[in-house]
Amino acid sequence: MLPTLDEELGLADVYARIPFEELKLMGYSTKVVVVDGGSKDNTVELAKELGCTVIPQWGKGKGAGIRQAFKRFIEDGDDVLVMLDSDGTYYPEEIPKLVSALPESGIVIGDRLHGTLEPDAMTGINWIGNHLLTWLAVALYGKQINDLCSGFWVFSNYAVKNLRLNSMRFEIEAEMYTSCVHQNISIRHIPIRYAKRVGDAKLGSIKDGTSIARKLIIRRIFLTPHEEN
Predict the structure, then answer these.
(1) pLDDT digits (tens, 9 = 90+) for 86-103
(2) Which CATH number fits domain 2-221: 3.90.550.10, 3.40.50.300, 3.90.950.20, 3.30.450.40?
(3) Is residue 194 predicted with pLDDT exceeding 50?
(4) Strand pairing partners for 110?
């Protein structure tokens, strides 16, 4: 599953690097679902040309799109869902490594902070912010997580069915972690490589970091979302 918003510069390369044959040898049949948040460039047209299933999301924000894709995943009855950003920051070649590490009924998170950060992949402010938010998550919930804001996750069908989410924006990864804690879903961390993104960044350092911290605090008080959409 690839969330997109004006990612025509990175989408084709990410798609071309997905190791379909290796996954097939592992026993998986694969499909690529692009959930698009209202792209104004040629992202949707390109995704269709590549043969992807395109889901135009019903709300604005990454969280809204991911929750909609989760719903589609459950309806389709698939076994494993791989989520990564389509901006070239993550290495699709590492998908088999993460899938192989998937716990039964659990999830895997690609760990950038203990992996390999390529030059200019993450600004100093974002590096500090990622560490602080990860530390805050562990302090509040007591369950280990190495990289709270990673966008590279692998989910079992059981995990997706049991996540309780209402995030609309970039706080979605933080809420997925909190839901794993509350629902006792096991988490495994695998170090990954992280590269400089293609195109303009969508994540704002201060505003989005504050939203992520707020979500962590709110879900510590309210074990399930106040209102699910």
Answers:
(1) 999 999 999 999 999 999
(2) 3.90.550.10
(3) yes
(4) 190
